[in-house]
Design goal:
The chain has 5 helices and 14 strands. It is α+β, with helices and mostly antiparallel strands and about 290 residues long.
Length: about 290
């Protein structure tokens, strides 16, 4: 059964299950992991993992072929799927306005996610649960070019899981345009931009799968935009943008099966809710 979960602290590729040995094979010395049903379940899981790795490898090869094809024609160029020009343009416009958000004491952040600029006063939208998981520690943002700045917390709204930060004017972040309220359509292509697993500037593509999904966002149930664009821990607070590069929502939660990773069902706070909450917070906090 699918379980909804928030997108909080990233768990990187260095994580290894205690039931697996250094070579990635099941450790049969773990209690209950004998030749019976348990071992068969492990074999099934390994086969599933192998299938996922294979898919990732094929996808990476296709992407690599497309990039190589830009510099010169070759066999890989013919087999690479065409990339819609409008999505490429949208990604190019969006990435410079997206930041990584790190919360914690000292160099080691205790929580991290994403955010994006919404105006020329260097206000940044992000998720409140990132700040909550960071224990109200010092907030730092990292820009797409690697520059880092201490961020002021202008205000927080746990009920909608939104928060507004502000960085010094010298940061020069370009604000992202916001889509018109209620203009998002089911089936339109979208990009999720952020820092999944700490990988800054990551862009994934999908479509708007549904509108007005009733899910728990923050402390209450609210309407959300559902998407199949791949989002993972670390994408929290990042923008979901349409093919015109307009923000249609803030990536906030995913549905999982037994709490294990993205299954292509993600949820974003609709832009009309984001705009309303941001205006209120900025009006109060300056």
């Amino acid at each position: 059964m699918a379980v909804q979960t928030g997108l909080g602290e990233p768990r990187g590729p260095w994580f290894v299950s205690p039931e697996l040995g250094p070579d990635g094979r099941p450790r049969w010395d773990v209690p209950g992991a004998g030749e019976g049903p348990s071992r068969r379940r492990w074999r099934g899981r390994l086969l599933t993992a192998a299938a996922v790795v294979a898919l990732s490898t094929v996808s990476g090869a296709a992407a690599g072929g497309w990039v190589a094809g830009r510099d010169g024609a070759g066999p890989s160029a013919a087999s690479a799927a065409p990339v819609p020009a409008e999505l490429v343009t949208a990604a190019q416009k969006t990435v410079p306005g997206v930041v990584s958000v790190m919360v914690g004491a000292g160099a080691a952040s205790s929580a991290s996610g994403s955010g994006f600029a919404i105006d020329n006063q260097q206000h940044i939208i992000t998720n409140d649960h990132i700040l909550a998981k960071g224990g109200d520690g010092e907030v730092t943002v990292e820009l797409s070019d690697g520059r880092r700045y201490a961020a002021e917390v202008v205000g927080r709204e746990p009920g909608s899981d939104l928060a507004v930060l502000r960085v010094p004017a010298v940061a020069g972040l370009a604000p992202l345009p916001l889509a018109k309220p209620r203009s998002t359509k089911v089936g339109e292509p979208v990009l999720a931009v952020g820092s999944p697993l700490g990988l800054a500037g990551t862009v994934t593509a999908g479509i708007v799968s549904a509108l007005d999904r009733q899910v728990r966002l923050g402390t209450t149930r609210r309407s959300a935009v559902q998407t199949d664009a791949s989002i993972n821990p670390g994408n929290s607070g990042g923008p979901l943008v349409n093919a015109r590069g307009e923000v249609v929502g803030v990536n906030t939660a995913i549905a999982t099966i037994d709490g294990n990773g993205s299954i292509g069902i993600g949820f974003a706070i609709p832009i009309e809710q984001v705009q309303q909450t941001a205006d209120t917070i900025i009006g109060k906090g300056g």
